[in-house]
Amino acid sequence: MKAVERAKLVRSLRQESQRLRLLLFVIGFFLVTLTFVVISKPDALLFNLNGRLSVDQAPRSLLIREWVDADDAASRRSADTLATAANDPKMVDDDDAGEKANTNAIGTSEEEKRVLTSEPEQGKWEEEATASELLAGGGGEEGWKGEEGHQDHQHKVTLPTISNYTIHDATEDNDNGKQEDEKTDTEIKYATDIDQTNGGGISQQPAKDNVEWDKPLCDFSNFRANVCEMRGNIRIHANASSVMYMEPAGSKRDEQWKTKPYPRKGDDLCLSHITELTVKSSKVAPECTKYHDVPAVVFALTGYTGNLFHDFTDVLVPLFTTAIEFNGEVQFLITDMAIWWTRKYAVVFEKLTKYPLIDFNMDDQVHCFKHAIVGLHAYMEFTIDPLKAPHNYSMVDFNRFMRMTYSLPRDAVTALGEIPKTKPRLLIISRQRTRMFLNLNEIMTMAEEMGYEVVVEEANVNSNVAHFAKVVNSVDVMMGVHGAGLTNCVFLPHNAILIQIVPWGAIDGICRVDFGNPAEQMGLRYKHYSIGVHESSLTEQYPLDHEIFKNPLSFHKNGFEFVRQTFMDKQNVRLDCNRFRLVLLEALDQLNQ
Predict the structure, then answer these.
(1) Share of the chain above pLDDT 90, in %
(2) pTM, full prediction
(3) Buried b / exposed e along 259-281 (16+ C-beta atoms within 10 A)
(4) Angle of CA points 484, 486, 487, to nearest 5°
(5) 3-state secondary structure (DSSP) of residue 536
(6) Is 115 helix (H, G, I), strand (E, B) or coil?
(7) Confidence at residue 393, expressed as pLDDT on a 0 to 100 scale
(8) What is the DSSP letter of 393?
(9) Rounded CA gap, 234 and 211, in Å?
(10) What share of the chain is helix, strand, coil (3-state, %, to 5)?
(11) Would you give the distance in Å from CA 111 to the centre of its chain?
């Protein structure tokens, strides 16, 4: 009996051991898989981390904010006023939680009204980012540290300086504190090897690092972005979320500003997830623990980044505008860091700064600078205003910078016939869920019969930027339905052609603002093709005599959520090849010039 019981016990133990090993194997496999996903493609996760915004909640343009929740103001407008409103977009995307946008948005300037009212007479509405392009978090992870560890101190700290100057404490004599440091040659020269042929005659007149700063620390006048800039004795204390300008003895100035360094001013939904910084003048501050002999630029990453369009219009274009003049001699301090995002665009950061990125939220140092910029210079969507930008930078400069950054070989298209037996290359940006080409094969066949070499690529959140950049740079014409994929036009060679297909729904104006105007400002040739009723898949959902076809603008009064779902999420495109052929013929004609 004892032998039998012992055998049963042994079998039981073996079974329990097998179950335990199987459980450990399953848990291990799950952890390895999760680790691989997080490390390799965190931006493809179908959820948000740290409670951050999905790009589905991203309003594409602040210029359309005022219309979304006007409390039935549209019903109180006169017919003339409503007609005017159709040409002046002031509506923001509703977020998924059903929260309403802030109606107290900053007003549109006269220049912006002039640009918008010059668009076609259909309503100006935005696309909303697709659900797969969710924004990953990462602000809580360890960032790229720019400096070594913190040194404890009780009084004044004497540290090996990493600068060519010394920032004096407020308690010291100011006799030496008012000396001016001349910029090095690398700080004075233009920031890149960009040829100025098409750059609008950029003038480089860098100012010296004056110790005393006699203008307001911050400029809140821009409708899109707040920027604070100062020169002198500046201390950035991440733990206190503060940037302090040390006033010299005898100064009576007392300034304090609250700012969130992300260029979506007035967008409370977006900015609610951005770290707020205090910029102030002061005569008392914590001791310096790190000294820098280069300027600082402080900006945020969270917001709506994670969607290609927002990556560029909210971060990369403004960052270029703000930092390119420093020729890499600039230190970036990033609030709300997303490590996967900085890795995705690592090559861009390498061109803009020679120094490791500092994760502002994870830093415990008191950084001392003589020149600091908090926030990024930003203007309208996906655009640089050369009349307002530092040194008159333009989108031509940005286009050239992106080609240089990704080592793209073609600076400009060549006229047809200059290279024998070479066909013009046409890139078709395809989509897989919404706004798809339903007759893609027919479009390809038509284009090939016309003499094009056709390339088809899908641009999505998982696309490799360097690979896509090379494909785009190799073509002469790029076409696609309105969407984030058209942002890749930044890699096109000068004088290439961008064709934007505009879905049915009275959204022509905003389509032009998002991509038409930026393309032309980059030195590209732009074509705008609005589909007809018979080219829309909406004909399969509604009868032809439905109001949605007779007067699509009237549906906008139902709110943008309805507009988005109806005209974007639930609409695909079947191009009329006989009608669209004329557009491709015009493109061929332009390539011959």
Answers:
(1) 49
(2) 0.69
(3) bbbbbbbbbebbbebbbebebbb
(4) 75
(5) strand
(6) helix
(7) 94
(8) -
(9) 10
(10) 35, 15, 50
(11) 23
Which residues, 6+ apart, have CB-to-CB distance to 172 below 8 Å? none
Of 3, 371, 308, 332, the C-alpha closest to 145 is 332
CA–CA separation, 260 and 276 (whole Å): 5
Sign of the CA dihedral 210, 216, 217, 223? negative
Amino acid of residue 400: R
Q: Give the position of tokens 């740290």.
A: 50
Are 497 and 523 contacting, i.e. CB atoms less than 8 angstroms apart? no
User: Does residue 31 sit in helix, strand or coil?
Assistant: helix
Contact (Cβ atoms closer than 8 angstroms) between residue 274 and residue 300: yes
- DSSP-derived 3-state class of residue 234: strand
For 79, residues 6+ apart whose C-beta sits below 8 A from its C-beta are none
- CA 490/CA 473 separation, integer angstroms: 9
At 88, which amino acid appears?
D
Distance CA 524, CA 547 (A): 37
465 DSSP 8-state letter: H
Angle between helix 440-449 and helix 577-591 axes, rounded to 10 deg: 40
Among residues 260, 252, 202, the alpha carbon closest in space to that of 227 is found at 260
- The residue type at 585: L
CB 265 within 8 A of CB 224: yes
- Give the model's pLDDT for residue 38: 53
Half-sphere exposure of 322 (CA within 13 A, CB side): 33
Alpha carbon distance 281, 487 (integer Å):
40
CB 252 within 8 A of CB 291: no
Considering only CA atoms, which of 334, 287, 381 is closest in space to residue 141? 334
| Under 8 Å between Cβ of 378 and 317 | yes
Q: Which helix (H) or strand (E) holds 229?
A: strand 227-237
The whole-angstrom separation of Cα 351 and Cα 406 is: 10
| Contacts of residue 4, Cβ cutoff 8 Å, sequence gap at least 6 | none
All domains in the chain, ordered by first residue: 229-393 (no CATH), 425-536+572-591 (3.40.50.360)
Are the CB atoms for 237 and 285 separated by under 8 Å? yes
| Positions of the chain with pLDDT lower than 50, given as ranges | 41-211
Neighbours of 181 (CB within 10 A): 16
Rounded Cα distance, 499 and 526, in Å: 6
Residues, the chain: 593
Q: Is 377 helix (H, G, I), strand (E, B) or coil?
A: coil
Q: How far apart are CA 137 and CA 48, in angstroms?
A: 7
Q: How far apart are CA 304 and CA 199, in angstroms?
A: 29
HSE, side-chain direction, 13 A CA sphere, residue 386: 16
The whole-angstrom separation of Cα 270 and Cα 300 is: 11
Cα 408 from Cα 208, distance rounded (Å) = 35
AA identity, residue 559: G
* Confidence (pLDDT) at 186: 35
526 with 106: CB under 8 angstroms? no
